[in-house]
Amino acid sequence: MSKRTRTTQTTVGKYLITRLRQAGLGHVFGIPGDYVLKFYDLLVASPIEVVGTCTEAGAAFATDAYARVAGLGCCCVTYCVGGLNTLNAVAGAYAEKSPVIVISGAPGLDERRRTPLLHHRVRDFATQRAIFEKVTVASVALEDPKAAPDQIDETIAACLRHKRPVYIELPRDVVDLKCAAPRRLRTEPEVSDMEVLAEALVEALGMLGAAKRPAILAGVEIHRFGLQNNLLDLVERSGFPIATTLLGKSIINELHPQHLGIYEGAMGREDVRRTIERADCVLILGAFMTDINLGIYTADLDIRRTINATSERVAIKHHSFSDIELRDFIEGLAARVKPRRKKKAAKPRTPRTFRARKGQAITVKRFFRRLETFLEANMGVVADVGDCLFGAADLTIPQRTEFLSPAYYTSMGFAVPAALGVQKANPELRPIVIVGDGAFQMTGLELSTIARQGLNPIVFVLNNKGYTTERFINEGPYNDILEWQYHRLPELFGPGRGFEVRTEDELEAALAATRVDTGKYSIVNVHLDKMDRSDALARLGQRLSEQGGHAKRS
Amino acid sequence: MSKRTRTTQTTVGKYLITRLRQAGLGHVFGIPGDYVLKFYDLLVASPIEVVGTCTEAGAAFATDAYARVAGLGCCCVTYCVGGLNTLNAVAGAYAEKSPVIVISGAPGLDERRRTPLLHHRVRDFATQRAIFEKVTVASVALEDPKAAPDQIDETIAACLRHKRPVYIELPRDVVDLKCAAPRRLRTEPEVSDMEVLAEALVEALGMLGAAKRPAILAGVEIHRFGLQNNLLDLVERSGFPIATTLLGKSIINELHPQHLGIYEGAMGREDVRRTIERADCVLILGAFMTDINLGIYTADLDIRRTINATSERVAIKHHSFSDIELRDFIEGLAARVKPRRKKKAAKPRTPRTFRARKGQAITVKRFFRRLETFLEANMGVVADVGDCLFGAADLTIPQRTEFLSPAYYTSMGFAVPAALGVQKANPELRPIVIVGDGAFQMTGLELSTIARQGLNPIVFVLNNKGYTTERFINEGPYNDILEWQYHRLPELFGPGRGFEVRTEDELEAALAATRVDTGKYSIVNVHLDKMDRSDALARLGQRLSEQGGHAKRS
Questions:
Q1: Which of 130-189 (B) contact A at CB < 8 A?
Q2: If contacts are CB pairs under 8 Å, which of residues 295-324 in chain B contact chain A?
Q3: CA distance B534 to B527
Q4: Is the CB of A53 inside 8 Å of chain B's CB atoms?
Q5: DSSP β-bridge partners for residue B403
Q6: In b/e form, how buried is each residue of A169-205, taking b as 16+ CB within 10 angstroms?
Q7: Nearest residue to B461 via CA among B390, B397, B367
Q8: pLDDT per residue over B78-129, tens digit each?
Q9: Distance separating alpha carbons of residues B23 and B21, to the nearest angstrom
Q10: Residue of B nearest to A126 (CA)
Q11: The predicted structure's pLDDT at residue A80
């Protein structure tokens, strides 16, 4: 009937793989199961590499990180017992805008009719899809081979457009059914409404031109939509100082002379806070105004002085504009902004230096100080949640280094599997993982997958014997965990080096050894006092107590 | 206005704890997080013991197992990053009818209004609850302290009535709000419609009376609704032979002279299959007719010869009756069934014996043979998924031994955390865990929690170097996993014994050592050939190939 039925044919499974390849996908993370084995066979026969993990949760975190680095990620799992284990990580990808495709196998349509109580079923055969609808921007069950090509195209397009997860369910008896072969992809670039754009630009440029102390605050969407160069252009043409949010950390070379640091209310450095909050016009670009980004309610930004542009809308003061592409807005500003006179001696800053003190017990603060001097351009920093994240906020990240962290959704256990995803996406990047002991116990065993894949991250377990961030909120026995001999895990998994570190010189020795041993992963068990904490966490605590505590704020 | 407002007051958090205690709950499994810390403080101050796990998935599996043994289980987690990690295990509890309460912390109602982008949020504040609605029989967010007492009572009642999970969400600023104190619980026993019951009993007794070769097939609801003694009474009064489903394994002493074994189509023993399928009337009691229970479509039961009673309805041939309590139906049959003449020499059967062969490599078949003679009345068997489960089906379980397995939902990774739940529910029971290496890599690290709690299960890792059950469906590189030195985990976690076993005499030595060392857990790394399999899996394969394979059945 349509033109499609007259074209060459393929199968639904092969069609899906072709489209994934065309979208640039090189790897799929997951664990097989009987309902998805047929599709796994197709994947194995394709140029896509299948990376088997220990858990589906690990696969999904790896996929999220892979997507953040490569622009698209995909995990492939079996029905319910596989898919539902990915849900938390997929929810995190939704919250933080990471373009993840979840492919789930499913019982065959034919067998469903014959035996309603098939294994892995929860309530009915629509249950898993209904659940994924809540954490994705598009979800589809490929139950009709005729409709499948369009469904696949639309779903992948939604993932790429919104930079958010989508869900594709593939019943096992549909994998090999015939469908139309892939046609040339219609790529419709998103365009701004030029009239709206012009109006918004005039107003924004007017505010910025009139401002005496303008500043830029940039966030994670700059990274997701690949606008780092556009941002840099605007920064350098305008001469405005720039801070980033925690989630957007490293979207600009942090040694750049105009870069201030991370803005996160009272949790961040005081000088950054002052510059942003005293600015008479703050240009916010691609940032989520989350509680963590804003230092747990301690940020103080007057909306009447802000221009706030995201991928979804541009807001100036209390009004907002739709149909403006973030890229167009940033480029429009860069083209016409009135340059501020630059300070004379604006030279690139140099990283701080560090000298280890022999026999001195290592602290959180000194650990991060040391780490900063250790970082090289070919490294990527992956921070887990808790004081790992707060402490990492003060790390100066040099150009070309990626910084990844679940700084809004803040799901513990992100970092180790994320390192797997980062390095599969970019083998040139050596991941530096900073993870607490509590988070490590959740997903750290994906170090096994890292060992199997022959990757070489350096994993620092900040071993403070429990959930230390929580100790500063409510202390109780529930914040204690069992202490593992983390550094001995390579004895269980094979090639890899373990280090146990209690003092600054032991840290030096471990760093020296692991820096040159680039052929394998390392795990460094960094013993810390259970009540030690980063400067950022200390600042937050002090500020909250000055204000009479969190509960009294309104 | 109502009487309630005039009574003594308590707080919403304390009310919830009081009701949990009144329902008999002694332990809660989980991991804290800031949105649930206040409630954790109340738990710690209560007689309920909080059992911290490494992961929320582990907490939820432990809760499910605890519920199966104790009649009610509860896990308590933080918002989304905690709750969503429990979803797979909770879905399994739904599928297999296990009474699990999930309590999730949530952002305060007040802070939601002030800062919409609170950490851990996915799409909106209703997202997590909407997801849990799909896998529970009742879900509620306690957002109004006036309504909370009734909401709590109704939700817990639904859990106990349906033996299925429920979800309770508790915003952190509601925990300490005042509400009415608990009133005396109205316990309304479920009752049958006596007219319907009488009609069904007459017809069923007529069929059974007319049958020459009647048989009973009993399932897991006998366990969930505590009907083991009622069933035994019916079995002994009637003289009928009885088989159980795999999910219902051990609901009757398997050495009982009338007990045949597990019925699971071609996967089960041929003599059991013959007796059930050649019976001229099969009385099915509390069984789920699932694909695994029925041996992956190989079962052959003629519906015209069946009476099929569950907690939901009684079906005779092609018609069904509502409003009949399973207990009343079984008791009614027992009271009036015409006893069959018992065979003369019906003595209790004795377990098989085993003699180890020195230097002989251990096989799946010989492992299970040996295990059977090892079991004692104070042990509980927890089987994970795959050939662990199929092999365990042939184990004869003596009276008073619990057998637990996710035999329908079949989620890998159930067994190790389930052992934690089993032993917290019944400290007298020493769990015998049978788990594959693939499943162990998913959740086996909860052995850390077992170590911390000082429990003493014996964990057998059937180490066949990958997903062996899948190798018999589709072999591919995705079925391989990295081999760990499983027996060395006690070196990481502390007290516990590790054994590496390759031969029958090494197994003997490990069993002898672990049997007497009752003060700590053991982990036994049982090396198996990667293509070795149980008798049950071999039988299924043979039968399917005789029938021309699975795909050709209709």
A1: 130-131, 134-135
A2: 297
A3: 14
A4: no
A5: B381
A6: bbbbbbbebebbebeeeeeeeeebeeeebeebbebbb
A7: B367
A8: 999 999 999 999 999 999 999 999 999 999 999 888 776 788 888 889 999 9
A9: 5
A10: B134
A11: 96
Burial class (CB in 10 A: 0-12, 13-18, 19+), B97: buried
Distance linking the first and last C-alpha atoms of chain B: 63
- Longest CA–CA span in chain B (Å) reads 80
Predicted TM-score (pTM) of this structure = 0.94
What is the rounded distance in angstroms from the CA atom of residue B28 to the CA atom of residue B67?
Answer: 11
AA identity, residue A432: I
CA dihedral A255, A260, A264, A267 (to 10 degrees): 80
Residue A540 has pLDDT above 80, yes or no: no
- Nearest CB to B87 within list A84, A118, A476: A84
A124 touches chain B (CB under 8 A): no
Give mean pLDDT, residues B167-174: 97
Q: Which of A240, A259, A235, A239 is nearest to A249 (CA)?
A: A259
Distances, alpha carbon A103 to alpha carbons A43, A120, A155, A161, B474, in Å: 12, 16, 11, 18, 19
Q: Do B44 and A476 touch (CB under 8 A)?
A: yes
Residues 6+ apart with CB under 8 A from B18: B10, B182
Run of H or E residues at B247: none
User: Measured between CB atoms, does B88 come within 8 Å of chain A?
Assistant: yes
Q: What is the DSSP string of A245-271?
A: -STTTTSS-TTSTTEEEE-BTBTS-HH
**Is residue B38 less than 8 Å (CB to CB) from chain A?**
yes
Count CB pairs under 8 A between chains A and B: 224
Dihedral of alpha carbons B448, A449, A388, A508, sign: positive
- Closest chain A CA to residue B447: A482
| pLDDT of amino acid B348 | 57
Evaluated on CA atoms B43, B48, B52, B56, the torsion sign reads negative
Show the domains of chain B with their CATH numbers.
3-180 (3.40.50.970), 194-336 (3.40.50.1220), 364-537 (3.40.50.970)
Q: What is the pLDDT of residues B481-508, one digit of tens each?
A: 999 999 999 999 988 999 999 999 999 9
> How many CB atoms are closer than 10 A to CB B186?
7
- The whole-angstrom separation of Cα B165 and Cα B134 is 10
How close is the nearest chain A Cα to the Cα of B291, in Å?
Answer: 5
Residue of A122, A288, A470 with shortest CB distance to B32: A470
Task: Give the amino acid at A524.
Answer: V
Q: Among partner residues B409, B411, B473, which is closest to A34 by beta-carbon distance?
A: B473
**Interchain contact, A117 vs B288, CB within 8 Å:** yes
Phi, psi of B23 (to 5 degrees): -80, 0
Sheet of B281-285: strand order equals: B259-262, B242-244, B214-218, B281-285, B306-309, B314-316, B319-321
How high is the ipTM of this complex?
A: 0.93
* Cβ neighbours for A368, distance < 8 A, ≥ 6 positions apart: A391, A392, A394, A395, A534
